[in-house]
Amino acid sequence: MRSVLIAARDLLARGHRQSPLKTWTAVVLMLASGAMLPLAALTTGTLLDAALAGQRGTAITTGVVVAVLLMGGVTLSHFAHIAYFELAERDLVDYDVELIGLANGSSGLDVHETPEHADRLAVLEEEVPNVRMAMKALMTTASLLVAMSLTAVLLAVVHPLLLALPVVAVPALLAGKRAEQVVDDARTAAAEPSRLARSAFRLAVSASSAKELRVYRLGADVRRRHAELWDAATDVLGKAHSKATLLRAFGQLWFAIGYVGAVLLVVWEATTGRLSAGAVVLVVVLAFQVNVQVATAVALLPALRRFAFVDQRMRELRAAVSGNEHERPGGAVPPPDRLREGIRLDGVSLTYPGGAAPVLRDVDLTLAAGTTVAVVGENGAGKTSLVKLLCGFHRPTGGTITVDGVDLADIGVTAWRERIAAGFQDFVRYEFTAREAVGLGDLPRIDSHREVEEALGRAGAQDLVPRLPDGLDTRLGTSYAPGVDLSGGQWQKLALGRAFMRERPLLLVLDEPTAALDAKAEHALFSRYAAQATRYAAECGTVTVLVSHRFSTVRMADLIVVVDGGRIAEAGTHAELVARGGLYSQLYGLQARAYR
Ligand SMILES: Nc1ncnc2c1ncn2[C@@H]1O[C@H](COP(=O)(O)OP(=O)(O)OP(=O)(O)O)[C@@H](O)[C@H]1O
């Protein structure tokens, strides 16, 4: 119950922030409409007594009042609906905006990479559109509270024993509440299989997986997984719904017994002359209204409980994002204007949140200012994890990273990120215009035609634009709007252009930037990288970190770092490492032979 009250308060407060006038209009109209039906019942009783007593004038006046009250009940709630419907729409947008903010609200990736976070986001993505229903349920509940209170007072005035009628309604309400708890628990239990089923569905219908699904004949398998996961989810939900229906039916039956008892009581009192005919009509109508009120309350509970569940998840998300224990926001020291010494890692280790073992251990490394450092190693060795630490996405769980002698943890995360340029292996395919897809790399200059073209030139992707039908104004992708679809390599070239938008980065990260490029493009690109890295190095001492599996790329680096099982196995120049005859030499030999 407490969670429902908190959720109701949050929803009203959110509505009030959007429009105080509309909120108050809706609340006042709904409260007034709640009083109309009980007052109409009262007036109907008076009307009957007046008619039976031959008081024509009173009967006509009360008849008009009954009509006005009945009309008022309908029209007030109609006008309230206009106000709260718009509020609910605004609330919905507000929730979406907040969700986008929270999904991107942590400076690092620790929160993002936990299953609880994924579940919370999946639940919210699905449930937030039900805010419309929640607003309607909340307003109707406000109206219902007035109606129930007034009804209780009127019943008590006719006969104190009739107060038992609303009391009889309580077990019915409790049964309804219990039913909702059962459904909520089931929804939480079904969140994981539902999320996995949705992911199987996306896999089955997305264009990017179509090729593999056909070649490996995975269609039937994905369908089977999807069906099994939904079966698991719907089984849990189905059982819960059956149990909830039984609980609600029990509640309704219990109330029906009370209703019959109340009607028999007033009829008995009337036959003994203690109550008037008008009072009997009043009680019969009110008792019927109590039944409707209880049924409405029970029917409203699901929407309110469901919203309370959303509100609770939203609060958990806020708390998880703001109070993430693994993530420190970073100090206020600004990053240096230019790197003089470079970046040092001393005894650095990293264990992911919830991870059993460190994925990086005892890493000692100096990335000297103005140099290009290549990181190589087998899959899962820890290369990307190293890059993530340098970008401040995760904090080392042991040791320190210093930038020109200042602990990276003391440097403001946002300020540090502004001095990083990065191209990631799992780059994003922004389905915007080509100019925006590149210009996003440096938001203030997103609209600059010249600077976007220069960035593409630095990334070796200048040949891409002339092939697009509307040049940089070409809309990309076909998922949400008609646009031009690009090849994997072309998307990657745009991602590289994005990485080269920032002009004075202290750290340039290229995490397997050429995986989707052909050999000619790769070769052209490396020569450009080398020139670019030299230019950056002269301007601000940039450290370029290049993660690659291609040794033809790697050999041009000033320092090659070989990562093996989370440790630095060896480090040196290409010549030094080949001469040493260690892991690098073996891996290089294997690849060189393959190319011969
Ligand atoms: N978010 C995460 N949570 C837990 N473990 C992770 C996470 N990301 C990576 N790992 C684990 O850390 C280890 C190193 O992964 P990492 O991505 O750094 O390897 P990599 O050398 O870049 O591999 P690849 O060449 O395949 O890209 C792997 O065992 C991986 O399973």
UniProtKB/TrEMBL annotation:
Gene3D superfamilies: ABC transporter type 1, transmembrane domain, P-loop containing nucleotide triphosphate hydrolases. SMART domains: AAA. This is ATP-binding cassette, subfamily B. Keywords: ATP-binding, Membrane, Nucleotide-binding, Transmembrane, Transmembrane helix. Residues 343-590 form the ABC transporter domain. GO terms for molecular function: ABC-type oligopeptide transporter activity; ATP binding; ATP hydrolysis activity. It is a multi-pass membrane protein. GO terms for cellular component: plasma membrane. Its main location: membrane. It comes from Lentzea fradiae. The keyword Magnesium does not apply. The chain crosses the membrane at residues 24-48, 60-84, 142-168, 249-268, 280-304. The keyword ATP-binding applies. It is found in: Cell membrane. InterPro entries: AAA+_ATPase, ABC1_TM_dom, ABC1_TM_sf, ABC_transporter-like_ATP-bd, ABC_transporter-like_CS, P-loop_NTPase, Type_1_exporter. Residues 24-306 form the ABC transmembrane type-1 domain.
